[in-house]
Amino acid sequence: MLITQLKSKEAIEALAKGKTVIINCHGCKEVYFPEHEAEKLQKELSADGGVARIITTDYICNPDNLKLQLKKHMDAVEGADAVLVFSCGVGVQTVAGMFESKRVYSCCDTYPLPGFQGVTPLTVNCAQCGECYLNYTGGICPITACSKSLVNGQCGGSKNGMCEVDKNMECGWERIYRKLEKLNRLDVLNCAPKLRKYGNPDAE
Amino acid sequence: MADYTKFKLKKREELASALAEKDDLFVVACNKCFKELEGFDEPECGMFEEIAKEQGKRIVGCAKVDFLCNEPLTAKRLTGSLPEEAKNVFVISCGLGIQTVAKLAEMPVYAASDTKTADGHHGMALTDTLCEACGQCYLNLTGGICPIVDCSKSLLNGQCGGAKNGKCEVNKEMDCGWQLIYDRLKKQGRLEEMLSQPAQTRDYSKVNYKFISEYVNAAREKRYEGYYGGIHPSERKEMSEHLALKRFPEPLNVVIHMSQHAGAPAQPIVEVGQYVKVGQKIGEAQGAVSSPIHSSVSGTVLAVEPRLHPVQGTELTAVVIQSDGKNALHESVQPAGELDSLTPEEIVAIVREKGIVGMGGAGFPTAVKLKPSKPIEMVLLNGCECEPILTADHHVLLEYADDVIYGLKAIMKAAGAPKGVIAVEDNKPDAVELLRSKTAGMQDIEVVAVKTKYPQGAEKMLIKRVMGREVPPGGLPMDAGAIVSNVSTAKAIADAIRKGMPLIERVVCVSGERIARPGNFIIKNGTSVREIIEYCGGIKGEDATVKLGGPMMGFKVENLNVPVLKSTNGIIAVETISKEAAECIKCGRCMDVCPMELRPLYFTKYALQENWEGMKAQNVMNCIECGCCEYICSSKIPIVERIKLGKTAIRKGK
Known about the structure:
Radius of gyration of chain A: 23 Å
CATH architecture of the largest domain in chain A: 3-Layer(aba) Sandwich
Strand content of chain A: 15-25%
Shape of chain A: elongated
Shape of chain B: globular
Low-confidence stretches of chain B: none
Number of strands of chain A: 6
Oligomer: heterodimer
Number of helices of chain B: 21
Structural class of chain B: alpha/beta
Number of helices of chain A: 7
Strand order of the largest sheet of chain A: 3-2-4-5
Largest sheet of chain B: 6 strands, mixed
Order of helices and strands of chain A: EHEHEHHEHEEHH
Helix content of chain A: 25-40%
CATH class of the largest domain in chain A: Alpha Beta
CATH superfamily of the largest domain in chain A: Response regulator
Number of domains of chain B: 5
Mean pLDDT of chain B: 91
Distance between the termini of chain A: 19 Å
């Protein structure tokens, strides 16, 4: 579950040298894939006749599936000088691993996406820190809700409830305070200071 | 399958202190994602209960939920299920699930587990961690081996020098990533390219909260538009959307099936050798839910015999007529008079007598719909055409807008509905504009442009999207005060009233990347699919699948010697998709896209076990067979096929 963004047109044009085969992966399209931008760009690339084939399939991160989907396109891929993959980094590496002696190029940059369930990204985030703080914070994560990931209360820099780092973001600790107040559990704030163990082996 | 559990129960001591001074616990546990789909029980839940009991705590209830982080479904599942005596909620799940519950519950929510980073959650294949999602892909410089992941130091500009015999100095079990990169590039003859590359720097600020949250919000908005779930398959309508509607050449023979609608097949009333005219009734309706059949040509009846049915797949009674090409009209084809002068009963009678059935695919006799037992507030004309590729309804709207509006008024009058809405997806702006200008002065008719999302055209989704109401499980649109009808059906009703013409022809879209010359045609009922495809230049390529209808819900036809029916909105030839079903990995995507808010993953499992009770318990009968789950399935499981198995078994009372 990743966000894929197209690389610049110049960068992609520079990669499409010689006979080119393009592979699009639509497996995570419901999450995010720049389908129309990619289509437009591929049309432009095809204009000078260098593109031998455009293959659109899904879940190329699964090597077995990739193999099956490429079966009828093997001649085109084998004969290509460059294979341009429009997918997340996992897909590009799966193709590159299948054709070790081919120039397999990535046409997208991949960004992480919070939430790993289904295809719907989540607004809440979990940093997978391995030492859940939610019990002290009324169920609001201080690692992700506070831009400084403070675990022992606010930094003091917020103004009118907004974060000093990002003025469009609410102060996470103010949200936590209000939630605890609502739950009548402000006493939780009296607990001992906490340290975040960055080396927590469980988090790896 | 490897263990991808992203959470583990907190340690006994920590739980003991978290439990201190708290009692009357309600436990919520997530059934986990990315695992082999075995059953509901997870050991952690029992372990927590044991620890809580050791502390002398009372557990007032517990809920095990699939994909706890799926907010809309979890909200529905948990609302009202928390017992009143519950004072504290403990959640066993990853941080996403805990925060989802914390947001929903009115009482304190506590985490009973810590969240771990699970390898391989990027991408679906759950093998190794391959991608760190750095937002600045280096794979083009490194022969497709990621230096961030495969080098333990994530070096971008070559090896550190510490590797021994190709093994990393940090982790002796691991190959040196830069050695792998060097070997691969050498194989590809690209060493020079690598060495002359300028030095790379990694921009750590590229991946930031703001950038990602903007994407997340946009993606979320798109997903929940109008109704839960749904998908956005590539539309591929450009192949035929701008091609003008043409009349298909007169067929030599037509094969007119007696079963072209839901309910009892019609009874043939013509004999071999008899001369029939256009619009003449050749099959009589049998019973209340049935529909008469009319001849689409003038000519001689050649045979009344079983012929292959395109949808049923078996041989069923059909009337074969040889056309004389004269198109002589039958005397029964007479205008019925002005709409204003017709009573609702008269309109229903015309609709029944002229053989009008739902033309969106299901073929339900329209006359039955027009006599609902409940008051109707709104008639919804369905012009969504949410199936990819198809452009038949689009052309009906463009070419016959007046007829469609007339048909809508007729349905509204027949059903006594005060309001009419024509819903069109926003990928057809020309149709929306035209209909808006045509209905400008009409107070009781509105044109609604809905955001494109499949399966918008399913009546339950459309009612939810336009009226904000839910059709109860097992219910009909009238239970929500609505009648939903296809735009082509409305056009057919207009023809029946204005010209007296029964439903003998329709607009069919012939398209798909394997059709040589796509087009939109007015085609007579009973015309051979083979003739139509040949007229359109035949099929290109070896690997083509022909379907009647759209790519999502259309019926696959192996034998092209079948005729067009009243409900055939498209004939498409598309590239055959090769699939090999793998085990379900519980990725949760099917549940995420199911517009009926079901859990298709359980159907895949129960169908194989022939556990029909389980399927019933998972509400399989509510499934509308839209195919979203199968489309998104990362394991390529033929889910709809398995659902149909279950439905058939349950209908047979197993």
